[in-house]
Design brief:
CATH architecture of the largest domain: Alpha/alpha barrel
Number of domains: 2
Number of strands: 19
Helix content: 40-55%
Mean pLDDT: 92
Number of helices: 13
Strand order of the largest sheet: 2-1-3-4-5
Low-confidence stretches: 21-36
Radius of gyration: 26 Å
Shape: globular
CATH topology of the largest domain: Glycosyltransferase
CATH class of the largest domain: Mainly Alpha
């Protein structure tokens, strides 16, 4: 969905926008980022210091020479226009624009509204003002763009449209892969993204400025940061401009820092890179693997020793962890949670990419197994073969991977149970009504996420 300057929205197919995005929601506590922000607010309250405001912070940045007079006036104009537009909006449109304004005000109140963050924050505010005063309502997670820009935005209900850094850098990578005819668009997109980079942890980072589950803005991701490294390496190969590699080099520091500022967790083997800087216990394998791809590509393109060390540390940890994400029938998204179909395909793609780069059996063999799982029917087995008559009971069964499982229980005369539900791998049960003594046929059938089907028939004995 693209919003034109005249306020009309049109649907366009952009084959370079990747399907996968940062939409999965971790269920973790808010963590140190929110705690540190609350601590700063409490300290100011104890000392009687006023809470910083957006307008006040902009004035301080201007007086300090951190932003120019024209930039200062532009930001103030954007803030005034959005505040004025909000008073005229109703319903969902008002909710979305209000949320974007609230995030901006909270970032300022936390003392985190800096000169480097301002371009992305005020572009987000202005884009949301335009969209919610002119554009159509959107479906959750819908991708949108604004005419004249190559940036990818995504709709997060209750947070407005937000710059999708992962999707945008993924698009830049796709434009490079698409060949020289697309290089001008890639250069334009990267110029837009470079203008939105923030200072974080002694280096540069592309941050997210909205609330995402437990994440309080601004936060970042090893996955999007590594995709930036990959895209900047592509740009160097396309244009021969060493400035792209110099910028990528300045984006390395957060890979060596712990959360909530950085995205790495030290292990006894090396480093694990995080999908979310606010979720240090969230071990999402696809984000980890994409982080390695970006680090590897930059290392091999630039020869940067630090990037090589960061890749080696993550590579050692990933090879050791990878077997725990293989259930023998499907992949895990994170420990204890099976992948949905899209994430299974995504992690398989990343494994193939790493296999092509480093030829390590850990990646190559796992990629082939994950490919096979897409064609292998789920395995079913009935565990309950005998129950007592009359009283309710459960029919226990096992299924090898996440599937929709159906059951039919019949006697010689009629069907006594017919139902279905989705189950993850492991042991589960269907409730069984009280039955008369005798033999019953039990038919189990399962369809996995890839559409593979299996069925099995068992005999249930009901004793007096």
């Amino acid at each position: 969905m693209v919003l034109e300057p005249d306020g009309h929205a049109v649907v366009r197919d952009d084959p370079f926008v990747p399907a996968a995005s940062l939409t999965s929601a971790p269920s973790v506590p808010t963590g140190a980022r929110a705690a540190s922000a609350a601590g700063r607010r409490a300290a100011r309250a104890r000392h009687g210091a006023p809470t910083p405001t957006v307008a006040g912070t902009l004035t301080k940045l201007w007086r300090a020479g951190a932003i120019s007079t024209s930039t200062y006036r532009g930001y103030r104009s954007t803030l005034t226009a959005a505040t004025s537009a909000l008073r005229r909006l109703r319903g969902l449109r008002a909710i979305e624009l209000s949320a974007v304004l609230a995030n901006l005000h909270q970032i300022a109140a936390d003392g985190l509204l800096s000169a480097s963050r301002s371009p992305a924050l005020f572009l987000t505010l202005e884009s949301n003002r335009r969209w919610w005063t002119q554009g159509p309502l959107l479906n959750p997670a819908q991708r949108v763009e604004l005419a004249g820009s190559e940036l990818v935005w995504q709709y997060y209900p209750g947070q407005g449209i937000e710059i999708q850094e992962l999707g945008s850098f993924g698009k830049a990578d796709g434009l490079f892969t698409g060949g020289p005819a697309n290089y001008a668009r890639m250069r334009h997109l990267l110029a837009e993204l470079i203008a939105l980079v923030s200072m974080r942890g002694g280096g540069l980072a592309w941050e997210y400025f909205f609330r995402f589950e437990a994440g309080v803005p601004p936060w970042t991701s090893a996955m999007s940061q590594a995709t930036a490294l990959e895209a900047l390496s592509d740009a160097y190969r396309a244009f021969g401009d060493p400035g792209y590699l110099a910028l990528a080099r300045r984006a390395l520091p957060i890979f060596g820092q712990r959360p909530p500022v950085g995205v790495s967790v030290p292990t006894r083997r090396g480093l694990r890179y995080l999908l979310y800087s606010f979720a240090p216990s969230e071990a999402v394998i696809n984000g980890f693997l994409q982080s390695l791809i970006g680090l590897y590509d930059f290392w091999r393109t630039s020869g940067d020793a630090r990037a090589g060390r960061l890749f080696a540390a993550g590579d050692a940890e990933a090879r050791a962890e990878l077997p725990s994400y293989d259930t023998g029938a499907w992949s895990l998204y994170e420990p204890g949670q099976e992948s949905d179909l899209n994430y299974h395909a995504l992690v398989t793609e990343f494994l193939h990419e790493l296999c092509n780069r480093v030829r390590a059996p850990a990646y190559c063999a796992t990629a082939l197994r994950f490919d096979a799982y897409m064609k292998t029917p789920p395995a079913l087995r009935l565990l309950t073969l005998r129950v007592r008559a009359r009283g309710p009971s459960g029919l226990r069964f096992t299924v090898s991977k996440v599937s929709h499982v159906g059951i039919i229980v019949t006697s010689a005369r009629h069907t006594v149970l017919l139902t279905s539900a989705q189950f993850g791998r492991g042991i589960h049960a269907f409730g069984l009504p009280g039955l008369a003594p005798g033999s019953y046929a039990v038919r189990l059938a399962a369809t996995d996420l890839a559409g593979n089907f299996s069925r099995t028939t068992w005999t249930l004995q009901v004793s007096p």
